Amino acid sequence: MTVWKTSVRNFLAHKGRMALSAVAVLLSVAFVCGTLVFTDTMNTTFDKLFTISSPDVTVSPKDAEGAEEQPGNGKPASLPASVVQQVAKADGVERAEGSAFSMAVTVVNSENENMGSQTGAPTIASNWTKNDLRSMEITSGHAPRGPTEVMVDADTAKKHKLGIGDELRIIAATGDLRAKIGGIAAFTVTNPGAAVVYLDTATAQKHLLGAPDVFTQVLVTAESGVSDARLKESVAAALDGSAAYKLQTQKEAADANKDSMGAFLDVMKYAMLGFAGIAFLVGIFLIVNTFSMLVAQRTREIGLMRAIGSSRKQVNRSVLLEAVLLGIVGSLLGVAAGVGLAVGLMKMMSAVGMELSTGDLTVAWTTPVIGLLLGVVVTVLAAYIPARRAGKVSPMAALRDAGTPADGRSGWIRAGIGLLLTAAGGAALWVTTQADKATEGSMYLALGVLLTLIGFIVIGPLLAGVVVRALSVVVLRLFGPVGRLAERNALRNPRRTGATGAALMIGLALVACLSVVGSSMVASATEELDRSVGADFIVQDGGAGRPIVPQAADAVHAVPGLEHVTDYAFLKAKITAPNGKTADEGITAADPTYQQDVRRTALSGDLAEAYGKDAMSVGEDYAEKHGVKVGDTMTVAFEEGKTAKLTVAAITSDDTNIDRGAMYVNLTTAASYVAADRMPQNAVMFAKAEEGKEKEAYAALKSALAEYPVYSVQNQADFKETLKDQVGQLLNIVYGLLALAIIVAVLGVVNTLALSVVERTREIGLMRAIGLSRRQLRRMIRLESVVIALFGALLGLGLGMGWGTAAQKLLALEGLEVLDIPWPTILTVFACSALVGLFAALVPAFRAGRMNVLNAIATDG
């Protein structure tokens, strides 16, 4: 009980010094709990939507694409309308309705602006059914009555300021449909951001499916008292157990839709938790420093406790109990902050178009438990070494104010272990650069990153002595005696300086590594474009990757001033190699002019002949794996058509980033085995301008596709800029998440300086007494902070560039062969680290400057 009282008293006595450590715990726990609450809420939102909107039983074609896939030909798989009557006659069926829907559509307003979501959520066009009343209600106007009327969801109407009577154009594979808004329907559950347009049944069948007597699904409602399982059996019997149809109960349909979203949500969840883990790791250094300095400042107190009978175990336990209190306080505040963070994320997502209601806010009981456990365990682990060190203080040494025991031998052992780990990590990174396969090299890369990181952390005190002296020559010596004092303060306790710098090092190492990888990706892709792409223009969907509808493709072909236009589509097929092995593969069907648009190297044979009748090419990896040679015959069973026997006319090099491993056939060859209404639409189109007419053709292409705003026309310069922007946006998101770790590291510098000022109270008083001014004192502390921040930045950036260089060597095996070090970014981050040091020193320097000289000299600590 005495140990507990002592721990509580010490915790309350040093609550100001504990505050920043508590903030570090708070931020890390908040990020973990916020991530869990946010993803749980998204799961709840989708679960409710999928469950409520699904009928009791759904009948769909066996080969229907998943909810996340779009049909390559723009027309969803369908079933005969007669199936609706068959299902309606089954026992236990109250109502059977045909549903005609498609997600391969674009909706634009009268000003040609895209009405679809910009967040990746689908645009859905469908006929209005009674089943829709499960999740929707008409709030104004009425359901569509004929081909000239549509109904839109209320969220889309509000977002785009649409009202009754406004005209919309629905662009589908079968053509364009113009109609006026006759009604608006609101979701009765949360809509995560999909744009929904309703048509009448006949118009939906004709315009979305291309035939008047088909549906995409049959939606079945059970009679009262009939279970979904029983209804499914009854419907299956009515269809004579036909294998052509897939039957799902409400739960099965909802689960299938959830699974299609689950992968995306899991990636987001674990990525965010990974960054929270980095913040926790950085926070460990802050807590270690805090308790190390508190123990050092309480040396005499600990000696007195030992002198009056406290055992090492009791002293150790007292410090650990303080850590438990810190962990509990920080974690509880972090859990509350995490819920607030989740709400903030939801509001931010709603602002960009993904509607998430706080009414669905989900805080599972496991979330606060995980947050509390993580916060307390991490804090206790971080405090263990200082607590153990406190227990080793002998009573006589402590009463002489000799401080915590210094073991030179342990320091040399630590340095030796650190150098060994660093050397092993460096060797693993070197092996990474020599790997022949990316999968093999990735294991060495992970090992190298881990060992070098731990190694640098362990030898931090040794590096501090060397690097801080070197930095001082450049930075601190310019400030004369004040600079020298700052240098000595930073070198006084290399272990503390090393731990403080290591906290900043981790975040900046990741920033540098990702900057090198991102910059190398852009440089490699740019070089590949210059070397391999001969087309002047590329036409594609700039957002969701939708195929190019025929009317837009026709508009491209009609543009004057073009030397040629290349159609390019993907087909699915089962391919049997000469060795008898069959696998699902993708085949690229293109016009022969594609050879001019993208230059591929043929290792054997002639690529031009691969575009001949009943001919194809294969990539070198596939050829090597299956023993394929030029002249061999491949059996190709097209998914939407017949089986073909195609002759291998060329084997292409896979030393490329564009179409790596692609198998080519002529579009006319593919069309001879796949029915016209099942042939995929163009995934992308290429065009070459006539000599000297590049500018005119570029403008004409943009004008021709002005009515189809989802498709972008890019020349090579545009394409490079888009690629650079995409990588930049991804890196900015990562940097934003890493900012949490850097904030915690800054708190570590602040806390270290603040506690260091308290530790040096008498020394500061003596320096003031012999003539050091307040301005000089504050400058000394600021300079100490700057050199510690630059020390951490130098280690982090150097380590990160090493990681990034090794990672790029792996990417080179996948075709990204250019190493590009983004020196402007690296130098900017290094310079900003000095500003971080200045910022971190503001409060400690201000407090030091306000000290009373006589009181400081008279103090015991």
Could you characterize the architecture of this molecule?
The chain is an alpha+beta fold and 861 residues long. The protein has five domains: 209 residues, no CATH class; 180 residues, no CATH class; 50 residues, no CATH class; 221 residues, no CATH class; 163 residues, no CATH class. It contains 27 helices and 24 strands. Strands 15, 16, 17, 18, 19, 20, 21, 22, 23 and 24 form a ten-stranded mixed beta sheet that branches. A hairpin with a 5-residue loop joins strand 16 and strand 17. About 1% of the residues have low confidence. GO terms for molecular function: transmembrane transporter activity. Keywords: Cell membrane, Membrane, Transmembrane, Transmembrane helix. Belongs to the ABC-4 integral membrane protein family.
Intertermini distance: 28 Å
How many distinct domains? 5
Cα-based radius of gyration, to the nearest Å = 34 Å
Q: What proportion of the residues is helical, as a percent range?
A: 55-70%
SS element count, helices:
27
Q: In this structure, how is the largest beta sheet organized?
A: 10 strands, mixed
Q: What structural class do you assign from the helix and strand content? A: alpha+beta
Q: Roughly what is the average pLDDT, rounded to an integer?
A: 84
**Counted beta strands:** 24
User: In terms of per-residue confidence, which ranges show pLDDT below 50 for 5 or more consecutive residues?
Assistant: 401-407
Q: Bin the strand percentage.
A: 15-25%
The best one-word shape is globular
